[in-house]
């Protein structure tokens, strides 16, 4: 069931999403060669808790997995999403995808971005640029009376024009009272398919785009998703609300 939110509920989601956005911008400043992903995780958790909020990912569980131990997901190069923060030191030339979720007042916000560590290759720059632009192209389709498939198709059409692989095993999702709600929002699909978009919906749209194959594998830790061919991946995400028939990005400063 897709939950339609009231203005009051959207304001709560906006507050959580704003903390997410601020946390991501803070981490973006600290994400340099020489720092560990665990150090970034500590910075994020401290900031989130200083805003009387809770890291949404910490302790999150899914079937067959350990509880997620981090406050952020930190995914480097061929790690697509759900990378566990640890003692790995960031190196010049890598790209780092950072995913942050926040719960405050019983409502969630969720967003992600990919950052360059030092000087990166033109190949990685282009992958990041296309992935980020595909997010906004998808958001443009999130208008009342369109369907979820219109978001999916817009992302797919743009990304595949560059020959990149679209991760199909993972999707965007509704967000609000729960971290993951209906509907699922694939990054590929047919126009005029799926649920009708209505005012009051709150959605997390998140293209996960691979330089090579769309195929992914799960690491031994049970969480980290990697590209099957070892090539890099990029990830961008925003929480949005459909207000007066149009999309508004909530996960911004």
TrEMBL record:
SUPFAM superfamilies xref list: Creatinase/aminopeptidase (SSF55920)
Q: Where does a divalent metal cation 1 bind?
A: 99, 110, 237
Spell out the reaction equation it catalyses: Release of N-terminal amino acids, preferentially methionine, from peptides and arylamides
Gene Ontology CC = cytosol
Q: Where does a divalent metal cation 2 bind?
A: 110, 173, 206, 237
Which parts form a coiled-coil structure per UniProt?
A: none
The top EC class is hydrolase
Instruction: Give EC number(s), comma-separated.
Output: 3.4.11.18
**Example GO biological process:** proteolysis
CDD domains xrefs:
MetAP1
**Alphabetical UniProt keywords:** Aminopeptidase, Hydrolase, Metal-binding, Protease
Q: Where does substrate bind?
A: 82, 180
Q: Which cofactor does it need?
A: Co(2+); Zn(2+); Mn(2+); Fe(2+)
Organism domain of life: Bacteria
Alphabetized Pfam families for the sequence: Peptidase_M24
Q: What does this protein do?
A: Removes the N-terminal methionine from nascent proteins. The N-terminal methionine is often cleaved when the second residue in the primary sequence is small and uncharged (Met-Ala-, Cys, Gly, Pro, Ser, Thr, or Val). Requires deformylation of the N(alpha)-formylated initiator methionine before it can be hydrolyzed.
Q: Give the record's subunit note.
A: Monomer.
Which NCBIfam families would you find in this protein's record? met_pdase_I (TIGR00500)
Q: Give the similarity note.
A: Belongs to the peptidase M24A family. Methionine aminopeptidase type 1 subfamily.
- Name under which the protein is recorded: Methionine aminopeptidase
